[in-house]
Amino acid sequence: MKSACIRYWMDNKQASARLAMPIEPAQQASPLINIDGLSAALARFAQERHWEQFHLPKNLVMALTGEVGELSEIFQWLDADASRGVADDPQTAEAVRDELADVTMYLVRLASVLGVDLNAAVAEKMRKNALKYPVSKAHGSSKKYNQFE
Length: 149
Fold this sequence. Notes:
With 149 residues, the protein is mainly α. It has helices at residues 2-11, 15-20, 36-48, 57-75, 80-84, 93-114, 118-132, 135-138. It is globular. The two termini are 31 Å apart.
């Protein structure tokens, strides 16, 4: 999915100009991400268990970091080819799905607790990244924006 999205933007000759313009959620045909249902389900889940008291931003960040660590552990000693196939390998596919789900749930819960609109945040960050990484300089390069000549 990610590579297809990147390919779309890289192949589109007007991508740089379009992304350089501010992306306003109201201007989008549909949200880039829609987490409303998940956010509500996570809030209900926490409320039913009286866990809101534990869902402090620092605790959620720590839990998120732990889950990212568990996801990283799956990839830790894999070579490039094996890492590309983790979601298809029966021995790792379920663990990858579970850890991605955990990371997503903690991230969404954190955004909800902090009152951050993730769709607006993602749209704004994409706009900033388009300015930092114009196609003319970033195409095919892994350099950080401040390393462009």
